[in-house]
C-alpha cells in the first residue's frame, strides 16, 4: 500500500467511522479503551489528525505538544461531530499530498518523513474505528488489503529494538522455541522470538503456536481489541497469552 493510498484511507476510514457511529450516544463507554467514552475517543481521533497535519504543514522536525489528542474531556450530550472529524481527516490528507512522502517531518523512531505519518494515521484511524464500533454497537468490517497492510505495519513497528529501552519487560518475550504463526486465507505472518531481537516475515511457517482467522480478526487480536477465543489456536496457547500480555501498541 503506497503513500497515496494511505492518504485516501485516512479520509475513507473517517467517512466509515462517522457512518458507523451515526446516532450513537457519545456517553457510551468504549470497552477497548477503559475509562473512555465514545466522545473522548472521537476527540482523540480528530485531535490526532490535526496534530499530525500541523507537523507536516510546518515541516516540524521537533515533537509538537499533543494536548489536543490527550486532553479528552468535553461535552458528550450532543451528536457525533461528523463534520469536525471529516474536516480534520481531509485537511491531513491534503497537507500530506501537498508535502509528498519524502517531506521532512517529525516522527518517532527516527523515521522523520511524512510517509510515516500518512501510514500511521491511516491505520490509527482503522483501529480506532473498531473501538468506536464496539462503543456504538456497530459491526466492524474492513477491506482485506487494508487489514493486511495494517498488520504489516504493526509487525514492523513492534520488532523495533528501541522498545527494549522504553519497556524492558518486552525482553521477557525472547526465548528458545518461541515462534508464533498468524494465518488468514489471504496472507500469513511468522514471528520469531528465539534470538536477541524480535523478527518477523510474511509467509507460512511452522511455529510453536499458530493462530488462524480472518484478516480482520487477526488485526483486532494483534491490537488486543479482541480475545483469541473464537479463533483457531493450535500448539502452545500459553505462549500466545504470554505474547499478548507483553505487547501493546496503538
Q: If you had to describe this structure to a student in words, what would you say it looks like?
A:
This protein is an alpha+beta fold and 250 residues long. It has two domains: 139 residues, Up-down Bundle (Four Helix Bundle (Hemerythrin (Met), subunit A)); 99 residues, Nonspecific Lipid-transfer Protein, Chain A. The chain contains nine helices and five strands, in the order αααααααββββαβα. A five-stranded mixed sheet has the order 3-2-1-4-5, with helices on one face. Strand 1 and strand 2 form a beta hairpin. Helix 2 runs parallel beside helix 4. The longest helix has 23 residues. The model has no long low-confidence stretch (mean pLDDT 95).
Helix amount, in percent?
40-55%
Average residue-wise pLDDT? 95
- Return the structural class: alpha+beta
Overall CATH architecture of the largest domain = Up-down Bundle
Sheet with the most strands? 5 strands, mixed
Integer-rounded radius of gyration: 18 Å
Strand content: 5-15%
**Highest CATH level, the class of the largest domain:** Mainly Alpha
Got a strand count?
Answer: 5
Domain MDMPI C-terminal: 149-240
GO cellular component, one term: plasma membrane
GO molecular function, one term: metal ion binding
Domain Mycothiol-dependent maleylpyruvate isomerase metal-binding: 12-132
Amino acid at each position: 500500500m503506497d503513500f497515496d493510498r494511505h492518504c485516501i484511507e485516512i479520509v475513507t476510514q473517517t467517512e466509515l467511522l462517522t457512518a458507523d457511529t451515526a446516532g450513537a450516544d457519545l456517553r457510551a463507554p468504549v470497552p477497548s479503551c477503559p475509562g473512555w467514552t465514545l466522545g473522548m475517543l472521537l476527540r482523540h481521533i480528530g485531535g490526532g489528525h490535526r496534530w499530525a497535519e500541523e507537523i507536516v504543514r510546518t515541516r516540524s522536525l521537533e515533537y509538537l505538544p499533543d494536548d489536543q489528542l490527550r486532553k479528552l474531556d468535553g461535552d458528550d450530550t450532543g451528536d457525533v461531530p461528523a463534520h469536525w472529524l471529516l474536516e480534520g481527516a481531509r485537511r491531513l490528507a491534503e497537507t500530506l499530498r501537498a508535502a509528498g512522502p519524502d517531506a521532512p517531518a517529525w516522527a518517532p523512531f527516527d523515521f522523520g518523513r511524512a510517509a510515516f505519518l500518512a501510514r500511521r494515521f491511516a491505520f490509527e484511524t482503522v483501529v480506532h474505528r473498531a473501538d468506536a464500533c464496539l462503543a456504538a454497537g456497530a459491526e466492524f468490517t474492513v477491506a482485506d488489503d487494508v487489514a493486511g497492510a495494517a498488520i504489516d505495519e504493526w509487525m514492523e513497528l513492534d520488532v523495533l529494538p528501541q522498545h527494549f529501552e522504553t519497556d524492558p519487560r518486552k525482553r521477557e518475550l525472547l526465548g528458545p522455541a518461541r515462534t508464533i504463526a498468524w494465518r488468514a486465507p489471504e496472507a500469513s505472518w511468522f514471528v520469531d522470538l528465539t534470538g536477541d531481537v524480535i523478527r518477523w516475515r510474511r509467509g507460512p511457517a511452522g511455529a510453536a503456536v499458530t493462530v488462524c482467522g480472518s484478516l480482520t480478526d487477526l488485526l483486532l487480536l494483534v491490537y488486543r481489541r479482541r480475545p483469541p477465543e473464537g479463533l483457531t489456536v493450535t500448539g502452545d496457547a500459553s505462549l500466545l497469552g504470554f505474547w499478548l500480555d507483553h505487547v501493546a501498541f496503538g
